[in-house]
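Example protein as discussed:

>
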Amino acid sequence: MDLPLLFGIIIAFGISVYIILDGFDLGVGILSLWDKDERERDVMMNSIAPFWDGNETWLILGGGAFYGVFPKAAAILFPALYVPIMLMLFALIFRGVAFEFRFKAGKTKVIWNWAFCLGSLIAGFAQGSMLGAFIKGFNVSNGEFVGGAMDWLTPFSFFTGLALVLGYALLGATWLMMKTSGTVQEKAYSIGRPLMMALCVGIGVVSLWTPIMDSHIAARWFDMPGLFILAPIPLLTLFLTYMLWVSIGKKLEKRPFFLSIGLFMMAYLGLGMSMWPYVVPRHFTFWDVASPYETQIFILVGIGLLIPFILGYTAYVFYVFRGKVKEHVGYH
């Protein structure tokens, strides 16, 4: 069994699930920054209350598996991305604290509102900037990161950070279309199309910037037979964009959320095709940095037990809290 490849698929799956699940609740947090009505903000936050902390389980699973299976890659990537990783973790922690305190606060409620919003915004930007830094690559010598602490922050990574924030905001808006009604839902519809257009611009710019920045990626996408093999990804992205535009215009409730997930998955798949098979871009593949076989077997057994359990309780929570959020009924 090709265990490094299997773990690459498992970790990629875990990260994709995290992006979808934590993406929509980070998006709701980002959008709440612009809603000044406290009752509407209550509805927005109640829509994610049963889900937000469980969604972050996938981040822990993916990070822990990556560290255990690809320790040499972790020894390079973690120092290179130390600053955005810490920004993300502090933002997620501060956001969680704000979520709990806000519902109990009186005069200080406005402080926790800002803490929740900014925590969501900073976490989303940090994740996007890490993605940009990963695509751009790192200064590596003799298997060690030899760059500076701020090498991760470039014009490209700054742009990918903004693009992911827009993507999360779109996920949050389509989630509110599905889970709320009344004024909150109407506001979500009104901002849905502008967010979709802004995200499409972001995806387009990143898709063009990446091959310009890396000739190997350019050859993979634009030379034969790659051009023919990979063409369905941008074509499906255009189709999903059109369907999302139409579904928001018709004010459909559920379809926009799943179409926005589809857009994310197409971008994620395109990234995977661009970077394959490197786990440290242009330096090390999955097989170069894998841990010993016995370690991989041990971790595989643990993950094999955990993933069905996590999927089970995640599905159960979404089933129990199906339907729309009602005003005055929610988190306490």
